[in-house]
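BUG: 3D viewer hangs when loading the predicted structure for this chain

Environment: internal workstation, default settings.
Expected: structure renders.
Actual: progress bar stalls at 90%.

Input used:
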Amino acid sequence: MPNCTTGAVGVGGGAGSVVGGAGVDAGVGANTTPVAPSQPTRVSASPTNRLTEMRINWTSLGHHGLPSENPTIRIYYKESWESSESIKDVNIDSSFAILTGLKPQGVLYSYHIVKDYPTYGEIRTVDYQFRTPRTYG
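Structure tokens produced before the viewer hung:
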């Protein structure tokens, strides 16, 4: 029986060769180690010019894994003491989302961002908090 090794099929340079970087050792093909997606970075909340809206910002949604997949992205938010959450779908090309219909007058909310991938599952940020603006008058 011939001696076989895993991944010994090269492209262009013969079995297992790395001529011009074209073999399996070039990091392409079945031997590529998958990389899990990363969390969004620099997440923050800032009030809009309305008392019942809050803008959730992020610098980056993070990378989408290797091999790359397009996730469904959502912000889950709720009044801090409530158990049920509201959901806001997020466009993958955005750097912010605006939450509407919030209670004014300094109500404390918690929120987190979830990226849901077909293969990788959910990647979730930690819980963050914001307080809606108060009116003075």
